[in-house]
């Protein structure tokens, strides 16, 4: 049985220390000691240390929203996985569609980051998913396959078992449009089937695949109730403790 993992990707929001710690405390008060689901906060880099101090001693984990695949050096503006670790991160989101779109990140570059995250003891949350145009052209599975083959290239079965994949259809991100539970389930099942082909059944049965894209309290139950959906990567609804808690409340696991 895979444990649900519900992560808040705060994106470029709630970066002010007081806002970040207030948000973290609001979730901590309700779910800080919960073992029922894994909870991860991914605040902006500048708030990582403050949020880390708030969640210290709780069951909530911390993640970065991105990283550069080098330990250090002359890479102005970039963040090393060593710094993320030092701030208390256990996870790092990689290949988010906003990075693929606005910063032209390729599968190859994302794969380099995934491998380097593992080398430095961070668990990657690898984001995959099609645009609206690709969906309308019937290319959803082809895109998911391309992102998965690209992102997972060269990883060991043990690595894939331990990582998180986040299926986030681009057209559902921040738009209020959610994939129907059936559509999301069908893509998740396809992704898991592909992982079974690339690796084996035990890897496919173990790896957790989150859904992301306009997840909120009132659609969480149906989405998270699907057999191949193992949690959520939440954007907008992760920015208020009540709405994030509402997703956990309705996850079916608490
Ligand atoms: P929204 O929940 O705001 O649609 O964002 C989803 C997302 O991109 C999480 O990474």
Short description:
The protein is of the alpha/beta class and 254 residues long. Helices cover 44% and strands 15% of the residues. The chain has an 8-stranded parallel barrel with strand order 1-2-3-4-5-6-7-8, surrounded by 6 helices.
Structure notes:
- By secondary structure, the protein is an alpha/beta fold.
- The chain has a single domain (5-249), classed as TIM Barrel (Alpha-Beta Barrel), CATH 3.20.20.
- It is built from twelve helices and eight strands.
- Strands 1-2-3-4-5-6-7-8 form an eight-stranded parallel barrel, surrounded by six helices.
- Strand 2, helix 2 and strand 3 form a beta-alpha-beta unit.
- Helix 7 packs across helix 9.
- The structure holds 1,3-dihydroxyacetonephosphate.
Question: Features of this protein?
Answer:
254 residues, 8-stranded parallel beta barrel, globular, 44% helix, alpha/beta, TIM Barrel
Set down the secondary structure blueprint.
Blueprint: E1 5-9, H1 17-31, E2 38-42, H2 48-55, E3 61-64, H3 81-86, E4 91-94, H4 97-102, H5 107-119, E5 123-128, H6 132-136, H7 140-152, H8 157-162, E6 164-167, H9 181-198, H10 201-206, E7 208-212, H11 217-224, E8 231-234, H12 241-249
Parallel strand pairs: 1-2, 1-8, 2-3, 3-4, 4-5, 5-6, 6-7, 7-8
Helix pairs in contact: 1-2, 1-12, 5-7, 7-9, 11-12
């Amino acid at each position: 049985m895979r444990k649900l993992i519900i992560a808040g990707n705060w994106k470029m929001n709630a970066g002010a220390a007081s806002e970040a710690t207030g948000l973290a405390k609001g979730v901590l008060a309700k779910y800080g000691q919960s073992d029922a689901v894994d909870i991860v906060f991914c605040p902006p880099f500048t708030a990582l240390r403050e949020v880390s101090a708030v969640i210290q001693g709780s069951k909530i984990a911390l993640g970065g929203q991105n990283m550069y695949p080098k330990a250090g050096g002359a890479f102005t503006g970039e963040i090393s996985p060593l710094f993320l670790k030092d701030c208390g991160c256990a996870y790092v989101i990689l290949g988010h569609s906003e990075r693929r779109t606005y910063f032209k990140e390729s599968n190859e570059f994302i794969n380099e980051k995934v491998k380097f995250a593992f080398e430095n003891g961070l668990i990657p949350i690898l984001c995959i998913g099609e645009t609206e145009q690709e969906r309308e052209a019937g290319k959803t599975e082809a895109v998911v396959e391309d992102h998965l083959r690209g992102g997972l290239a060269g990883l060991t079965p043990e690595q894939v078992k331990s990582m998180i994949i986040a299926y986030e259809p681009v057209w559902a991100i921040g738009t209020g449009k959610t994939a129907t539970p059936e559509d999301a389930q069908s893509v998740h099942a396809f992704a898991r089937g592909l992982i079974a082909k690339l690796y084996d059944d035990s890897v496919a049965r173990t790896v957790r695949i989150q859904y992301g894209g306009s997840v909120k309290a009132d659609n969480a139950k149906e989405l998270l109730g699907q057999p191949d959906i193992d949690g959520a990567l939440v954007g907008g609804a992760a920015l208020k403790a009540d709405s994030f808690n509402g997703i956990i409340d309705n996850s079916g696991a608490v």
